[in-house]
Specification:
By secondary structure, the chain is of the alpha/beta class. It has a single domain, classed as Glycerol-3-phosphate (1)-acyltransferase. The protein contains eleven helices and seven strands. The protein has a seven-stranded mixed sheet, sandwiched between helices. The longest helix has 35 residues. It is globular.
Length: 282
């Protein structure tokens, strides 16, 4: 069992003191404030900003472009608030690689706020949104006007994703499909990857831009409610790697199904190998 996992199961005396430290209590309050602010901001965008955008901008393509930039800027501002009040800190390595357009971004998914940070870093971001989010009153306005892709079964989803990248959007895909399990996170691993991102890359003949997200303390995982703040302030590190061209890892005579499987296995090995390097400071 990794030393990191042992330390999580057997807290030291110093960690016992941190459980009730004023700094941790403040982070719990600040996290609740940030959640409330995010919800309130969603309502403002839904009820005020986007109706004005619909009224003043008639051309749909321009309206969508402006809406995505507004969401990206809003998420950037929200990230600054989270760091300002001490909920998290984060750094981005290789940020210059995200200044391009038409990227297929693939990232691991250790925390609920991964997508917020990623969208704040990208111009014209796009993402695949679960059906439940379209029914969420806080999220319906932004995702509908931004033209984000609705998650659905069948080849239409792949076609929509390919079209998004070719049109110059920066599409964010989490190949894990959901947040990393806490056990896998502590072992510096990812969940088994789904083949959606690989299918988009193979069938659209698109390069992948891998982003590895590491965090010093598990935060907002699938098993953690927001009010269970980590003992220490989590520090996120986002590392942007060079593009991965599927043709470099797939035999020329491979079928699309086989090619997607090979690319998925390569991505899984890549993320697990890089996570083992433990680039995130403790």
């Amino acid at each position: 069992m990794p030393e990191r996992l042992l330390s999580m199961n057997t807290p030291t005396r110093a960690e016992d003191k941190r459980r009730f430290s004023p700094e941790r209590c403040w982070r719990i309050v600040a996290t609740g404030f940030c959640f409330a602010l995010f919800g309130f901001g969603g309502l403002v965008v839904l009820c005020l900003v986007f109706p004005l955008l619909r009224l003043l901008v008639w051309r749909r393509s321009l309206r969508q472009t402006l809406a995505r930039d507004i969401v990206s800027l809003s998420f950037w501002f929200f990230c600054k608030i989270m760091t300002g009040v001490g909920v998290i800190s984060y750094e981005v390595r290789g940020r210059e690689k995200l200044r391009r357009r038409g990227l297929l971004v693939v990232a691991n998914h250790p925390s609920l706020i991964d997508v917020v940070i990623l969208i704040s870093l990208l111009r014209q971001p796009d993402c695949v949104v679960k059906a439940a989010a379209w029914r969420n009153p806080f999220m319906f306005g932004p995702i509908s006007l931004c033209g984000f892709i609705r998650n659905q079964d069948g080849p239409q989803l792949i076609d929509d994703c390919i079209a998004s990248v070719r049109n110059g959007s920066n599409l964010i895909v989490f190949p894990e499909g959901t947040r990393t399990r806490l056990e896998a996170l502590l072992h510096r691993q990812v969940n088994p990857l789904q083949r959606g991102a690989a299918n988009i890359a193979v069938r659209g003949r698109l390069a992948l831009t891998p982003i590895m997200i590491t965090v010093s303390e598990p935060m907002l995982t699938k098993q953690q409610p927001w009010y269970k703040a980590p003992l220490r302030r989590p520090h996120f590190v986002l590392t942007v790697f060079d593009d991965l061209d599927p043709t470099h890892v797939v035999p020329a005579d491979a079928t699309p199904v086989l090619a997607a499987r090979i690319v998925t296995e390569h991505l899984s090995d890549f993320f697990n190998r890089e996570l083992k390097k433990d680039v995130c400071p403790d």
